[in-house]
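Q: Hi! New to this. If I give you a protein sequence and the SMILES for calcium ion, can you show me the bound structure?
A: Yes, paste them in.
Q: Okay, here:
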Amino acid sequence: MTWPGLKRLIAGIILSTIIAAGGVHADTHQQVQSIEENGYGDHPDLLTWNKVSVEGIILNRPDFMSDATPNQDAPFGPGAWWQMYILGEGNDHAATAVWMGQCYENMLPGGGIYTNQQWLDELYRLSCDPCSGYVFAPGDRVKVTGLLKFYNGKTNINERHDTDPANNFTIELIEPAVGLPQPEVITFDDVKDGNDNFIFDPNRQSGCEYYQGRLVRINDVNFVDPNSWAPDAEMLITDGNKTFPLKLGIGWGIYGGSNNLTEPFDVVGIFDQEGDWKGDYRIWVLNYDGNGKVLTDRGYARYNLPGDINKDGKLDFTDFAWFAERWLECAPGSGGCLDGS
Ligand SMILES: [Ca+2]
Ligand SMILES: [Ca+2]
Ligand SMILES: [Ca+2]
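A: Thanks. Here is the predicted structure of the protein with calcium ion bound:
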């Protein structure tokens, strides 16, 4: 071989070694969420065992979205489950949900069930960066690597409902505390047509698909039925003309049970889809800080009254009853309570 030929060979070997060391390249969230005309996902790795990586900003605290308390004996469905949304940045106008459950056997025979301790270990593994031990929070920039699975309108990263460690996904820190972006302001007309039906664009350039998974704000709305407020409740908001589904999370500002919003109010939440591939969109608000004007959690309350559990600015029997009702409850993994349980 001539010297120039040998040089090209060496350069080629070095280059391919660098590429191999780089591991899985990151897909955009737009690539992962891409769909066919009927709304079903069309990413090629929905049909392979290749793990896919995406990068973006953590949008939510999983514990405000679902109750992940271990329950290995859950009779139906996944029992305990956990979900985190990862938001694309820059031109990557999409987002991907990362999901797992404890009792896959109820969902997919052969999928297995995590024991309560295994489930807690899995959640702990996913709650912090594997190298540094840094504990994740909303606003962190991370890289998620795992298998893709389409579910009810979204392409998720999950374990394909199998406890086999080969199906694990990983979350790695890229940069801590980058911060949450400002929500994108939308109107009912952006996502609902003249007949109050969801606008569905399979190219995902407009309508509901364009906002799926994104942090959005919708201003000047009323509840259709304010009395349906409850943790995890499905509500409806309206501008007096069109309506949109709103799902409340289980953040403890919502658990307190207080709806003190002055109508009309604004909403900031995650634009989600779960159900029909071309419909069943909703805005998911995971917590409420009691501010009275915007249904969202800005991270601080309207009043600074220690012990005001439902954040209504009053320390009264409601707070006491809430406290008394849960006296001596303790969270799994907290080391047990005074009564030794
Ligand atoms: Ca969709
Ligand atoms: Ca696993
Ligand atoms: Ca109170």
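A: Residues 308, 310, 312, 314-316, 318-319 surround calcium ion (ligand 3) (CB under 6 Å). Let me know if you'd like me to explain how to read the tokens.
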